[in-house]
Amino acid sequence: MTRKRRTGRRGALCAAVAVAASGLVAGPAAAAPAAPATLELDYHCTFPLIGPQPVRVSLGADVPETVRVGEVMPGIAVESTATVGAASARALAALGTATLEGGARADANLTVPEMPGGLPVQVDVGLERTDVPASGEFTVRGSGTAPDLTFSRPGPGTVAVGNLVLTLTPRTADGGPGGLGTFESECVQDPGQDNVLASFEIVDATGGGGDHAYAAEGSTLLAAAGATVPLTGGMALALGGDGARADLALDPATANVSLFGFLPVTAELRLDDAGGGTAEFADGVLTTTSELTAAFPAFRAFGVVPIGGGADCRTSEPAELTLTSAPGFDPAAGGRLTGGYDLPPLAGCGVLTGLIGDAVTGPGNTAELTVTPVSTP
Prior knowledge:
Elements: H1 2-22, E1 34-47, E2 51-64, E3 66-68, E4 77-84, H2 86-94, E5 99-112, E6 115-131, E7 138-145, E8 155-171, E9 183-189, E10 196-203, E11 210-222, E12 227-239, E13 245-250, E14 253-259, E15 263-282, E16 285-301, E17 305-309, E18 314-315, E19 319-325, E20 335-343, E21 346-347, H3 353-360, E22 362-373
Parallel strand pairs: 3-10
Antiparallel strand pairs: 1-2, 1-9, 4-7, 5-6, 5-8, 6-7, 8-9, 8-10, 11-12, 11-22, 12-13, 14-15, 15-16, 16-17, 16-19, 18-21, 19-20, 20-22
């Protein structure tokens, strides 16, 4: 008889755990199509009289693959059905249990870019009053709704299932409490398990998450020389949380400047990547920051006579180029970026380094690039 009682309590509680845990999927609601997610976890639940007992919980839910920044995500109403075995039904009946009811508080941890340490989420799950048969298995149904959530930054997100606290009431045929009365059971997850129910991607309202490759075309104005230099090249953009990057690669260019206000000089110019770039995409605005070294392989008077430059002719330190889009930028479609930068002094350009440098370096330089998506292999 003792074994039957324990089996019955475990069966009813296991059903409640399965129902409670199913409410945890409400965190990543989104407009994107949902994909089925399943997970099985082992717990030890502390029951009256018999102490901790192992319980296995099977979870299933439709979890969206993407979530959009800034949208209010209404909590998902989740339903669950747990099957209680025939042995558990006999044990409950032996205790005089005619119906079983109650609820649960389910803990989850939502990890998103603005909360990398995790955001605790609790879901209250109600169990329907369920008739307990004298023999044979039966099902227990429950439902719960998670709170509304809004995300402010793009990037990856995960929903991890945590511990459970159950409140259960067995009742007799006349509606009175069963022999145990209403009791609370804490269920602690066994260590060493993968408890991530689902992973998803948070994208900007324009849907711009992920990787993008662009061709780039535009120009830069060297303020000291008053010279506009055509630019071409490419940009690789990777959006996703704190690791977002924008790698800018520009082709060699030619600048037509003047020395002493009258001597025409052709300058070969390279804006070389000096360590990669960063990106931020928020509220429909893309901002990229690149560290670039300006190199000048040659300066030629009248486009013919060498007067400086060389393999070591470059700015003494990298310049920081920041480019920003207008609001409403769509990474999938590309668009126009504008910004500015200061060029540090030149070094290693020959005997005329100072004069040449004064003609092309200094503050107040501007740049504009139009980036157009290109296919990648």
